[in-house]
Every structure is written in structure tokens, then in C-alpha cells.
Amino acid sequence: MFKPFETDESSAIYDLTLENGADRINIYGNLQVTKDQDGLKTAKALQAFVNDLVIALEQTTELPEKIKIQDQKEVENPFL
Q1: More exposed terminus of the chain, fewer Cβ within 10 Å: N or C?
Q2: H or E element that contains 24
């Protein structure tokens, strides 16, 4: 797993994708937590990531109220 907000990389917990960036983390996909040993392992992996994320945010000095996210520019599909 990566350290939040440090490098541009991604990781996954099964079908849940975690994309790291300098100013945001994108989380998307699907994650099933089953009521068994595998589910416990999955839940702990997700918990560890979220705990690291919260710690990184709490340790950031001068955390802005809200960052401005630029809209993605639409690019014409060259294959059409």
C-alpha cells in the first residue's frame, strides 16, 4: 500500500481501486466484506488504509478549507 498524498500510484483491495495523488485520493470500485476470515483480512486492509489517510490529513499543516478541483477537459476520441 502507498503513503497517502506522497506519490502518483495506485493500489487495490480486491476490486476497490485506490489512486494516490499529491492533492487527492480517488477510491472507486466494489468491495465485498464477507463474514469470515477473508472478510476480516479485507476489512483490516481497508481500515489500515483509512487510518493512514486520516493521519496524513491530521499531520498536514495549513490544511485548506477546500481545494479547487479543475474540471477535466474533454478530448475528442481519435478512434471514431
Answers
A1: C
A2: none
**Rounded CA gap, 12 and 42, in Å?**
11
Could you tell me if 6 and 13 are in contact, meaning their C-beta atoms sit under 8 angstroms apart? no
Residue 41 identity: K
How far, in Å, CA of 66 to CA of 23, rounded?
11
How many angstroms separate the CA atoms of 36 and 33, rounded? 8
Residue 25 bridge partners (DSSP): 20
45 secondary structure, DSSP code = H
